Structures are given as C-alpha cells and as structure tokens.
Amino acid sequence: MKKNYLTMMSLSLATLIGVVCLPALTSQADEPQAATKTPAMTAVYTAAETKEFKALAQATLDALAAGKQTEMVAKLTDLETSWDDQEKVLRPKDEAVWTALDKTLDKAISALRSSHTNLEKGKAALESLLKKLTQATKA
Predict the structure, then answer these.
(1) Are 139 and 42 in contact (CB under 8 A)?
(2) pLDDT for 33 beyond 80
(3) Which residues contact 135 (CB under 8 A, 6 or more apart)?
(4) In CATH, what number does 47-135 get?
(5) What gap in Å lies between CA 60 and CA 73, rounded to an integer?
(6) What angle (nearest 5°) sits at the alpha carbon of residue 118, between those of residues 75 and 122?
C-alpha cells in the first residue's frame, strides 16, 4: 500500500510539474533564436576623432602579423592610452557606441597582454575594433 501511495504521489508531482512548466518551455522553444550578429554601430564620431585609433589598431595588427611581440604590446598600450585620454570627449556623444568599442578594445588587450596570450583572439578583436571604428565614423 505504501509503495502504491508513493508511486501515485510521484506521478501526481510529475504531472503538476509538467502542467506548470511545459507551456513555458514550449513557448521558449518555439520562439525564433535571437540573431547572433551584433547590430551595426551608429556613426557618431568624426574621421579626425577615430583616425589615431584606427592607425594604432592597424599598427598593432601589423606588429602581430610580423611576430614582433614587443612592438605589438607597445602599440596596443599606445592605443589603450589614447582611447582612455579621449574618453571624456567620445563617451558623451553616444554611451552605447563608446561602450561597444571599449569592450572590443578590452578583449584585444586581454588576449594580447595577459599571461595567457591568445594571438588569434587578439587579432580577431582588433579586426572587429577596426570594423566598428569605421562604422562609428561619420562619412
């Protein structure tokens, strides 16, 4: 009798969980997956404002491709310093754009200047930064 009671309770509990949770799980599964692409940047900066960042990002990429580790780190540090120096001017123009660029630069710094250097990840982050800087620059 006790065994049947426990079986009935287990089945009742499973049914209750199914009734409560299944609609939520089904509706999430039926929803289309969110696009993995990041939205295009809004062009908020002048060419003069992004010129130095683009040049330093490209110089960092060039040093990386040439296998010049010391030069790559130096150019990346120059890029970071220049970016930080211009934060007060650039950030107020569009917080979201500035933050997206800043996070991308942080990815490059973290990949290329950490104790666990990841050249491929750093290269991809720098290439992404260049693309985003171009998108964020007014024509």
Answers:
(1) no
(2) no
(3) 40, 41, 43
(4) 1.20.120
(5) 7
(6) 45
> What one-character-per-residue DSSP string does the chain give?
-HHHHHHHHHHHHHHHHHHHHHHHHHHHHHSPPPP-SPPPPP--B-HHHHHHHHHHHHHHHHHHHTT-HHHHHHHHHHHHHHHHHTHHHHGGG-HHHHHHHHHHHHHHHHHHSSSS--HHHHHHHHHHHHHHHHHTB--
Domain locations in the chain?
47-135
* Residues 38-84: tens digit of each pLDDT: 556 899 999 999 999 999 999 999 999 999 999 999 999 999 999 99
Q: How many CB atoms lie within 10 A of CB 64?
A: 22
